[in-house]
Amino acid sequence: MKRRILLFLLAFISISQYVGASDARNKYNFNSDWLLSVGDTPEAQQVRFQDTDWKKVTLPRAFNEDEAFRLSIDQLTDTVMWYRKHFRLPAGSKDKKVFIEFEGVRQGADFYINGQYLGLHENGAMAVGFDLTPYIKYGEENVIALRIDNDWNYKERATNTKYQWSDRNFNANYGGIPKNVWLHVTDKLYQTLPLYSNLQTTGVYIYAEDIRVKSRKAVIHAESEIKNEYKRAKQVAYKVELIDRDGKTIKVFDGTQTLVQPGETVTLKAAAEVDGLHFWSWGYGYLYTVKTSLWADGKKIDEVATRTGFRKTRFGKGMIWLNDRVIQMKGFAQRTSNEWPGVGMSVPAWLSDYSNGLMVEDNANLVRWMHITPWKQDIESCDRVGLIQAMQAGDAEKDREGRQWGQRTELMRDAIIYNRNNPSILFYECGNESISREHMIEMKAIRDKYDPHGGRAIGSREMLDIREAEYGGEMLYINKSKHHPMWAMEYCRDEGLRKYWDEYSYPYHKNGEGNNSFRSAATNKIQKKVDARAYNHNQDSFTIENIIRWFDYWRERPGTGDRVSSGGVKIIFSDTNTHFRGVENYRRSGVTDAMRIPKDPFFAHQVMWDGWVDIENPRIHIIGHWNYKEGIVKPVYVVSSAEKVELFLNGTSLGYGNRDHHFLYTFENVAFAAGKLEAVGYDENGTECCRTHLQTAGEPEQIKLSLIQSPNGWKADGADMVLLQVEVMDKDGRRCPLANDLIHFDVEGPAEWRGGIAQGKDNFILSKDLPVECGINRALIRSLTTAGTVRVTAKAEGLKSAEISFSSSPIEVKDGLSSYIPGNELEGRLTRGETPLTPSYKDTKVDVGILSAVAGANNENAINSFDDNELSEWRNDGKANTAWITYQLERAARVDEVCLKLTGWRLRSYPLEIYAGDELIWSGETDKSLGYVHLKVKPVLTNEITIRLKGASKEGDAFGQIVEVAAPVANELDLYKAKDGDKTRHELRIVEIEFKENLWQ
Fold it and tell me: Which region is the signal sequence (predicted)?
């Protein structure tokens, strides 16, 4: 017995000392050298099929990429296409396991290797993997082939059931293989891949527990599902190496040794306390590499490197904590396709970082990917840039039953397994609209099974009263809670092109002009709509609308009472080739255009969102430009988080702006004079805290070209891109904000012009004639597989031409395989620094609690008006003499603000009187709103407050233009759905009421 123990210890020591062994696993970039043919060619599955005339492509590449933004979403081509690839395995691969990983195909795909059928994958959203080992030819050429059908109405073959998320409004149909493909070569004793589809394996799971943020300590856990495909049992040791972003090993620890039988699958675990940690945070994409390795027979035989980060979360009391600091959600609901003109979703990893990083630059902290699980490249990108994510399963609208619900739960399961090591995911979203309590419990069980330690909340849109949901929130309205956090899933749905400044300057676009109809997503038909203000803004009005809409959430932020809003995400970040309602055939609600050129709302959000909750860095921005004709008199709008804003024109003060919605300052009737327009912000003490200016530009003189590219240079892999920026400048190098010149581009060298977008025929997609808009535009240029220097020349009538040269560097591809993994070379961005250890907000208001209520009618339901449930209400019986309710407060207080959510908030104005005891403290008509109204009342010491209706309410939708896919129903208690809601009577209906004392500090 002693001898056996000694031999075991010697074996363990030899394994532990073998840390320097070379990796036993290889991951290859499998994107190169694919062949594409559109149309159904059944014989293409055969090895000897002649494919020499097929189109050569580097993945990721949708077969219909040329249509992105040229056609509307519902017109994107759906058909059958084939992809094929010839490849050889490297020397030394014999007797190894070979797996292929597709990050996703669209929609249903049949997979073949060397003429053998591998299997089927149909959901069109999630990754899938196959074991190629039984069919692979070592030392010979192999042929893989895919038949893909991206039919909009594709149905699951086994059940004849359509996938709910294959939707012509939301899920742009970029068909084929629009995502990356990887090849894995491993030992026969290996850690599995996190690919549940087809492989039924769960891979590696890394997580942290007992996180102590201030002490910078945590217990790091690693778990690996492993499989032994040798014909004999293997004694396996499990080792974990934690490496920081600088490549330094900071911890090595071991799990227990395990005897694994032939064909057996087991899970190995290891854990250790680690100090000196940097915790992942908003704008702080600090990532570690965790290497988990298997050791047997005295050597390392498998190693997996997982890039991940660690952070601490908590959800409750209506709030969200990240690393022990409360954070209010501020960000965007972005289409999962996240697409670009002329290429769709298939962009290089660095361009994903550029786009997602712009959200963080805009001071957004959250992106809610809409309807469908995002692809892995965007998820990893958000890890790097420090952007929190809400990860969907998949749906269109509403709950489902039967097989469609089964499809959704399977997608959520697979997505959790695939993405559970990505620290930026804080929310799992089970549906784009409310699901049943039973379905919520089912989804929660999936999360608890596959990601029990990830620190992620699971919920769904709406979910206002189901406590099993760990977060909720509606699409359009303002929600508050003192239980699970509520944040708006899609707010501010208005649209406007970047091209239009205002009605005072070229091209003179008055708010709403040019659009007398809109496309309804509910009917898929064009409908008349004379009032088009919400769907055809200019930049001034679009920016102002965004300011107003954010104010609704800002004033309900943490620190304003017991019931708070956890913020919201605006739809959308960048203009998208999905559901549209305006003149153009794409959605223009973005704060940037499709080329990620900012519109003015981008800068407005940058001002309003600069803080975890309260504003931490005062900012200021003048909306618009300063290039008008002499004699123009117009309002000037400034967005600022300062307490007071002063405007100067050529050094002369024009006074202080009128403040509205906290952030908007208006200066009426400003007469244009060329020169410098300057805005200065002051804090509460009158000290300058921020400053900005606009300068009048001269006449257009010249073209300027510049390049935006990967920090690691442009790669000649046939998939990498550069972003070419073109500007029209005056003689002093200032951009001319009114320039709309048509620029002609010539391209020489190994490159493919993919172009940009502008208003015009086919949206100028792929055209080498592209106008600037507001003096600027951009175009994408894709590399070929041949490296070299590219020269671009830009010309326009009446302007000095420009030229720029840039070079691509070669990428080694051998037999269809490359070791170049584009995302691996991109570093996490640390722009905002580590999570501050200070509080993120100050209490500005406190609630005075309610003990009880007595009502003129339906007294038994009076509690519904203060039960913290926005799906319940108190109402009287419609008679004038019963339209009152009296509240007994928990203490005598000088209430100075009454916050109300009144049924029919967007449709109905209530004439109210409010009394403190017998003293009238407020009288008037409530505003129509998207949630809560705040009434400033006379502060009188009292413990009793009465709300009384003083006349019939007034009807009329104040927000009719926000009607969306779910039209006309948007909420259970909006009068669209409320019983007898269309009848105007002496009706008082209260969803929630709060009595507040403001704190003057």
Answer: 1-21
CA distance 965 to 324: 38
369 shares a domain with 456: yes
Span 304-361, pLDDT tens digits: 999 999 999 999 999 999 999 999 999 999 999 999 999 999 999 999 999 999 999 9
What is the secondary structure of 812-845 as a DSSP string?
A: --BTTBB---GGGGPPPP-TT-SPPSS-S----E
Decide if 296 is inside a domain.
Answer: yes
- CATH number assigned to the domain comprising residue 751: 2.60.40.10
Nearest CA to 220 out of 164, 270, 169, 291 is that of: 270
The rounded distance, in Å, linking the Cα atoms of 96 and 100 is: 13
Tens of pLDDT along 381-396? Answer: 999 999 999 999 999 8
Whether 754 and 766 have beta carbons less than 8 Å apart is answered as: yes
Residue 823: inside a domain, yes or no?
Answer: no
Q: CA 91 to CA 348: how far, in whole Å?
A: 29
Domain count, the chain: 6
CA distance 538 to 32: 44
Alpha-carbon distance of 59 to 79, in angstroms, equals 19
**Within this chain, do residues 307 and 330 fall inside the same structural domain, yes or no?**
no
**pLDDT above 70 as % of the chain:** 93
**How far, in Å, CA of 346 to CA of 351, rounded?**
10
Tell me the DSSP string of 229-297.
-SSS-EEEEEEEEEE-TTS-EEEEEE---EEE-TT-EEEEEEEEEEES----BTTB---EEEEEEEEET
Is the distance from CB of 902 to CB of 926 less than 8 angstroms?
yes
Q: In this structure, is residue 355 part of a structural domain?
A: no
SS3 788: strand
52 inside domain = yes
Q: Are residues 29 and 158 in the same domain?
A: yes
**DSSP bridge pairs for 824:** none
Last residue of some domain: 137, 161, 186? Answer: 186
- Same domain assignment for residues 266 and 140: no
| Locus of tokens 């009342």 | 937
> Closest by alpha carbon to 955, among 988, 908, 902, 904?
908
Helix (H, G, I), strand (E, B) or coil at 535: helix
> Diameter of the chain by CA atoms?
101
Task: Decide if 997 is catalytic.
Answer: no
Q: Give SS3 for 652.
A: strand
Query: Quick one: which of 222, 108, 121 has its CA closest to 154?
Result: 108
Tell how far CA 199 is from the center of its chain. 29
In angstroms, rounded to a whole number, what is the distance separating the alpha carbons of residues 52 and 7? 59
Q: What is the CATH number of the domain that holds 112?
A: 2.60.120.260
Instruction: Evaluate if pTM is beyond 0.90.
Output: yes
User: Sorting pLDDT into bands at 50, 70 and 90, what band is 71?
Assistant: very high
Nearest to 499 by CA among 241, 772, 317: 772
pLDDT of residue 580: 86
Is the same domain home to 141 and 277?
A: no
Cβ atoms within 10 Å, residue 151: 15
One domain for residues 677 and 729: no
Neighbours of 55 (CB within 10 A): 13
The percentage of residues in the chain with a pLDDT greater than 90, rounded to a whole number, is: 87
Statement to judge: residues 909 and 972 lie in one domain: yes
Domain assignment of residue 987, given as a range:
845-998
CA proximity to 791, closest of 751, 843, 759, 846: 751
The continuous run of DSSP H or E covering 127 comes out as: none
Cβ atoms 417, 450 nearer than 8 A: yes
Find the catalytic residue in 103, 122, 490, 994.
490
Q: Are 122 and 154 within 8 A, CB to CB?
A: yes
Task: Catalogue the long-range contacts made by 617-622 (C-beta closer than 8 Å, 24 or more residues apart).
Answer: 618/642, 618/681, 618/683, 618/689, 618/690, 619/681, 619/690, 620/645, 620/679, 620/680, 620/681, 620/690, 620/691, 620/692, 621/692, 622/677, 622/679, 622/692, 622/693, 622/694
